[in-house]
Amino acid sequence: MPRVELDGGRPLPEPGDPAIDELFGSRETTAACRFLLERRQNAPTMAEWLAYSQQAFGKANVHSQRRLREVRSHFVVESRRRTGDGEWVYELKGWKKEAAAASKISPRLQAEVFSKKGRYCHMCGAGPDQVRLQIDHIIPESWGGKTEFENLEPLCEEHNHGKQAFFASLDNFGPAIAHALPKQSPWERIGELLIAFKEMAQATPVELIELVAQETHKGDPKKRLRELRYVLGWDIVPHRRKSEGVTEVTYELRSALPWPPEGAQAAVAEYERKRKERKAAEVKLAD
User: Fold this and answer.
1) Average pLDDT of the segment spanning 61-68
2) pLDDT at residue 230 in the model
3) Which of the two ends of the chain, N or C, has the fewest CB atoms closer than 10 A to its terminal CB?
């Protein structure tokens, strides 16, 4: 994914500008934007934002963390380590330059998506009598997603904007995700993502593994990870750590073997077939 460009010619609004209310679908995201504008000269840490959110809304959790990042749907917010104590801070740099126009979704394709996938938001279930529905790319075009039926779904405006902000927060990982997504099987998509992160000398966040696996309704990405480790022989180490009250899970690829000639799916299927044969033989001997 290309680096987010800054619109340097557009002046920033004042923190109290009522126009900010029109930018976001969430009160907490609006508050996060005002908070970052107020702290432009003294960029805050995530912990400071969570404390502010707790005081303003009576809660502070992983969703509050996401609200701060959702400000990136309209503004460039840079995450960097603060000089001195090394704490991560969030600095609002300016307006985000408008992205290039997306491929047009034809009225016929829109009708097909609504007819076959339903006239309701696929995140919250709200229908057209409650919200305005939009057709959204499941996998962004900038990550290799195509404007075709399989990659489109109805979303309400609020969740469409929230999803855009979430993906914008992953800008640094866009090229790795775009490399992994076109692969044919979930094992290859997960594996190639792990390889890309290894080349960047980083562990892979579990959220990105779930994203590229594309098995939300018909599979288990964590099972695919186990199969990469125990069937295909990859050396993958899980890590867990708590950051500001939230447990973060990552997977570190230490070494990978070449993909089997018959393909990962066939190799796993053959392993399962032999395992069942062994189990059946053991049961027969026990009888």
Assistant:
1) 75
2) 94
3) C
* H-type alpha helices, 79-233: 107-117, 157-168, 174-180, 186-199, 206-213, 221-230
Distances from the Cα of 49 to the Cα of 55, 64, 93, 132, 255, angstroms:
10, 8, 17, 31, 38
Q: Are 77 and 91 in contact (CB under 8 A)?
A: yes
CA 29 – CA 14 distance, rounded (Å): 16
Of 213, 208, 130, 137, the C-alpha closest to 169 is: 208
Ranges of H-type helices in 39-106: 46-57, 62-70
Using CA atoms in the order 211, 214, 215, 220, what is the torsion angle rounded to 10 degrees? -40
Contact 142, 148 (CB under 8 A): no
- Closest CA relative to residue 121, chosen from 111, 131, 109: 131
Whose tokens are 């049961």? That residue is 283
Instruction: Render pLDDT for 188-215 as a digit per residue (tens, 0 to 9).
Output: 999 999 999 998 888 998 888 988 887 6
Q: What's the whole-number mean pLDDT along residues 260-271?
A: 93
**Is residue 55 packed enough to be buried (19+ CB in 10 Å), middle (13-18) or exposed (0-12)?**
exposed
State the architecture of 6-96 in CATH terms: Orthogonal Bundle (1.10)
Topology classification of domain 107-168: DNA Binding (I), subunit A (1.10.30)
Contacts (Cβ under 8 Å, ≥6 apart) of 230: none
Is pLDDT of 16 > 90? Answer: yes
Instruction: Count other Cβ atoms within 10 Å, centred on residue 124.
Output: 12
For the chain, domain boundaries: 6-96, 107-168, 171-277
